[in-house]
Amino acid sequence: MKTLILVAHPTEQDSGTQAFLAQALESANSSEINRRVLTLPAGGHFNAQQEMQDVLAVDRLVLQFPLYWYSAPAVLHQWFEDCLLSPYKEKLAGKELGLVVSTGRPSHEFGLGQRQGYSLSELLRPLAALAIDLGLQLLPPLVIAQFAYQTDQQHQQLLVDYQQYLQLPAGYSFADQEKWWIEQLEQRAAQTTDPKKQQILALLADQFGTRSDRLDDLKDELALIKQVEEGDEL
Amino acid sequence: MKTLILVAHPTEQDSGTQAFLAQALESANSSEINRRVLTLPAGGHFNAQQEMQDVLAVDRLVLQFPLYWYSAPAVLHQWFEDCLLSPYKEKLAGKELGLVVSTGRPSHEFGLGQRQGYSLSELLRPLAALAIDLGLQLLPPLVIAQFAYQTDQQHQQLLVDYQQYLQLPAGYSFADQEKWWIEQLEQRAAQTTDPKKQQILALLADQFGTRSDRLDDLKDELALIKQVEEGDEL
């Protein structure tokens, strides 16, 4: 699955969040994912043909931006205006649209009666309408609230969440996530030349695999118990 | 009441809707209303101090724009980013925020299960959140759907609706609208030198006044009937 990340940020160079996400992407080490920062050309307009070339080549487009006045930054709106034109926009149907949205306010402030008044689902309605219009499959947004105030552990979790958001299929399950972990560990084991590291990574991958199998067993047992309780024939 | 209209339109010069609204404003002939088209300076950024000077001087700010990809045009987002900063944004609390939104699609297409999927109230959530944030009193938007397809009669109605939207107090009633009509007729009668026109305009104003009085009488009668039916003492 080919993925393109379009970063829209008025001061991308100064953003700790964007630097972290760029690093996370690098450590994912995937040839299937490209990242591009939207920079308005000197004339004030994007070149649609140039811009849409790599958008049309991917299966998943990820728009990555901080919430500015409860909306995407102006540069992304400009990109929409300049690039989502015929004959390109008609060719987008069927692709996936991901949103990686960072906010300066804590998550709990977005909601009815809260300080920001509306939920993020409500505030992102224009992008949901855009997805409907273009026939894109909208993925649940990955929200990053107050990155600068997050703990190291939260940052670790974000790194994993972000990599999974970019790489896993739409509507991914817990099992998909586990498979992803095993692949990651095996990949890292293959890349390292240190035999001790290799051993540890192989052990971790094995543990994950065992855990997955045990989970499957537990699920089967649960299904069995339910059947018995409901008096069904075995 | 001082009002400032900020027009955000990528190709304002070519817009029939904007030309019509500019004309309607001119015919309102009010010294209390100013209109400005947002034009991005060569550097790509607005000057906050310069821009906010006349915003801070008004009681009502009206943002007037066509819906672009279910949102305001990029130039308005840029204006927000560049201008809604300290120490200006803190001084906006208490002012009114009006929205004059034109759409290329018919009104009935905006809603659950309809072609555009969401109502305009939903799509304009980011501006509602902005109003909450800044302490602005949001007025119900004036929506202009498919101006180019409207009949002459609909354009006439729009002219009146627009002038009233700009001039009447927030939450205006039917009585406010009638008063507005009388003032308009009297004003026009005072401006003309043609005695025949003066007579007709005075007559119309008188008729409006009589109609208003009769409506008040009818309301009193209705209240009386209700009281009798409910068995209250008179």
Question: Biggest sheet of chain A, in brief?
Answer: 6 strands, parallel
Number of domains of chain A: 2
**Computed structural class of chain A:** alpha/beta
Work out the largest interface and the residue count of each chain. A-B, 29 and 29 residues
| Beta-strand content bin of chain A | 5-15%
By DSSP (H or I, 4+ residues per run), the number of helices of chain A equals 8
Whole-angstrom Rg of chain A: 21 Å
Q: Could you characterize what this model shows?
A:
Two copies of one chain form a homodimer. In chain A, strands 1, 2, 3, 4, 5 and 6 form a six-stranded parallel beta sheet that branches. In chain A, α3 (74-83) links the parallel β3 (60-66) and β4 (96-103). In chain A, α1 (16-28) packs across α6 and α7 packs antiparallel against α8. Chain A contains eight helices and six strands, in the order βαβαβαβααββααα. Chain A folds into two domains: 3-172, Rossmann fold (3-Layer(aba) Sandwich); 173-234. By secondary structure, the first copy, chain A, is α/β, with parallel strands linked by helices. Chains A and B meet through α3 and α5 of A and α3 and α5 of B.
In short:
The first copy, chain A, is an alpha/beta fold and 234 residues long. Chain A has helices at residues 16-28, 48-56, 74-83, 120-123, 125-134, 152-167, 174-191, 195-229, and strands at residues 3-7, 33-37, 60-66, 96-103, 137-138, 142-145. Chain A has two domains: 3-172, Rossmann fold (3-Layer(aba) Sandwich); 173-234.
